[in-house]
Amino acid sequence: MKRFKLLSIALLFMFLAGCNEQEWLKEVPLDFYSPENSYKTYNQFNSAVARLYESTNNIVMWSDFNGNSMYHYCSDIAYNSIDPTNNMSSYTDKLKPESGDPLYFWQGYYRIVFDANVIIGRIDNKETEISDAKIKNQLKAEAMFFRAFMYRNLGIHFGGVPLILEEISEPRRNFVRAPIEDIWKQCISDLDFATINLPEVTELKEDGRLTKAAAYQLLTEIYIITKNYDAAITAASKIISNTNYSLMTKRFGKDKDKTGDVYWDLFRRENQNRKSGNTESIWVAQYEYNKEGGGGGSLLTRNLVPLYWYLKGSDGQNMFIGPSSKYGGRGIGFMSATDYLLKDVWKIDTTDIRNSKNNIIRDIRVDNPKSKYYGQLIVASGAIKDYPDPWKRSWTAIFAKSAPLNDFPIETIIDPVTGATNTGANKTFRDHAYMRLAETFLLRAEAYLGKGDKTNAANDINTVRARANAKQITSSIVDIDFILDERARELNFEELRIYTLMRLNKLAERVKKYDPMYNGVMANNGVEAYHNLWPIPQSEIERNTEAVLAQNPGYK
User: Fold this and answer.
1) Is the pLDDT of residue 265 over 70?
2) Is 62 exposed, middle or buried (0-12, 13-18, 19+ CB in 10 A)?
3) Which among 71, 472, 473, 477 is most buried, taking Cβ atoms within 10 Å?
């Protein structure tokens, strides 16, 4: 999907604000784009919808350490491995109404809401030059999906927030918070329209565009939030029973003949879309390397792959020639997996392929011939036993899904023989799935559990575990913590983990238990129950001079 440029919200305000002159005095520009003539044709509306995809990818998938990584390292599966005071390492110290992090998400999400509202509000105007009602409703459905997705994020993140459903054409300072029930009701309304008017996956002409299944997946989660478990089961079953979707159980894609397994295949470059044979992906963020409009790309490689290429042995020599393709490129280890994710969740089973050495690489061989440890494994040999790295930034493990191992673009390779890479080898260089069918099963399991049906919950969990060659479980062990464990096994560094914990009111509990910056292993930072909602940004409260934008409890 090609990038394009639209007027920003601020520019729209500038054009639209002002006095309302008599109709015969109104000037409509004909030789340049303006708010009056920018939303008429299919191409104009399609470009506006494409901007929703781009903006969503930029804040959710392609954002840097203070964006995408915060969905992970502020949770139970990962931590900030720079030091105990860096950025959001401590909720109590760092999460304030004046902090930039809440404002980043608040403004980013609302920008997309505003853009979606323009499309929704204008596409049915009599001036619109789209005669095909099906095409018009599909574009509108995409905008409604994105509005629901952003309000899902806002509602989980902040609780009740201003519910804005119309284009804002002049400055406003009188926003009030809607009850959270109204937020979820609106999400359901938008998604009901989307499930009717979005296409089936077989009708798509472009990779990455939304389908009915994506709307049903988001609807499933909203119904779980509102405790309408029967409706959630029905929505999830719409996807699971759709023969166009199935879990990948056999090797596939361009690297299927290489050492690996089917779970490993899911995260190889070029394997996320259906043309690779992948019938599991439901909604995929598109990335095209070195192409105009190809997207910013995920920096998961940079942030999660350890700083292994800095490691020195007791002889003072670097153990590695530098960042290399075989070990994940130029990772700098800004965040690291917790022992919960590296050890605890796998104790149930030793056969689970998601924990195989293909997917979680816990030891690598020294490749610098000058090192006395050359050719030896850094952990097994004891080479890094005394390495001074208190926060484990230099080494924990390499998650294969975080980097294109042995498959970096040729432009990033310095030496094809050794695989040495340059500083550009810091992205995943692949598309990323927002939604996969495996999560659909786990969401439906959660809905079954919510209504007390542990048998069917276990059946859905076992479907996911069977693909992973993991032992089948009995219904007696199914509870919400087990489902969270299974999500960690299957969806680590894919799902927006803090949102999963926040919607279940589990954030403080599990961060305090599993994050070494909070449980005393590396630090004793603070996190409290009220952190399950983030603060309304203070600057938004102060600008809202004509009404009270109430702050969340616990924040001053």
Assistant:
1) yes
2) buried
3) 71
